[in-house]
Amino acid sequence: MIIIIDEASEKLASFYYHDEIFKPQWKRAADMSSASDELHDEFQEKLQEKLPDELQEKLYGALLGKLLDELQKKLPDEQQNNLCVCEIENNSGYTESADNTAKANTGNLRIPKAPTDYIWIVSNRQQKQIADSLGIASVGEPQCGTRYAVESLAELDIEYLERVRRRYNHIPWDIGETDRCLIRELSLADLPALYELYDKPGMTDFVEPLYDYETELEYQKAYIENMYGFYKYGMWLVFSRETGKLIGRAGLEHNEMGYMIAPELWNQGYATEVCRFIIDYARENTDFEELYCRIDERNEASVRLAQKLGFTNSGHMDDDIHASIYRKNIKNIKNNEKH
């Protein structure tokens, strides 16, 4: 991840100076004068002069291209110190799309061509508009008008910046790991593997099958945007840490917990491992007082798992579908009683 900051974001840097992990990156950044006002003023001036009403849309793209060309020419000599860029290694286990950025002859500054690895900590609306125009994720205080706003830059940390960068670029979040599993959000690229999972024997005995591909695609687009984007939780995917293959699906839809594991891994403790992670996640990251599971009484393995995890049967939901609701309080318990 590459973080762009400017002089007005100096308090963010000072926030990080107490952290030895990030100290070297911010020290290198502090050696550079980071006033990018000339670039912003030039952009704004051309915008006002050359974009009359009816031509604004047509000329907008051309101006941005010209701006980038000028940036590449000027940075080595005149403006190399105008922008402060720090690169933070991405230690995630998820492989992102190919990095198509081109490295200019400008020290550690890279001119973005497809800047999915950039995030700009903006300090005004002008910077936010430029970031939007270049397709760069941005975050700032409310007055900057960013989609991802924080009350104070001191609230930011690397994990939050990385999640904003991923959400902006439609890269799924890593939710967490267990001993054997990686749990992360679904991306549209995962749909073929998801269909393979659902096609395995027994997988849809007690859950609804997927829609046809085009319908499922549209459904998942909306789900990613609204469920993940708004609530920051949802039904996630479960991958084997050893093989990297999709082996299940589990997560939260509000305070309902759901889970499914590939049949070749049944009775090996995978569902228990993943569900315990989800219970802990809900306890630490949501305001839910309790979780519940909707379980078909004929699904004896799921009934046994729910009881093992401390869920209790609170009665039938619907006799026609043989479903019962199992509930578990997740807040008012001692640490040694979590599982």
TrEMBL record:
Signal peptide: none
Molecular function (Gene Ontology), one example: acyltransferase activity, transferring groups other than amino-acyl groups
PROSITE patterns associated with the record: GNAT
Domain (N-acetyltransferase) ranges: 181-331
A Pfam family of this chain: Acetyltransf_3
InterPro entries registered for this protein in UniProt: Acyl_CoA_acyltransferase, GNAT_dom, N-acetyltransferase
Protein name: GNAT family N-acetyltransferase
Organism: Agathobacter rectalis
Upper taxonomic lineage: Bacteria, Bacillati, Bacillota, Clostridia, Lachnospirales
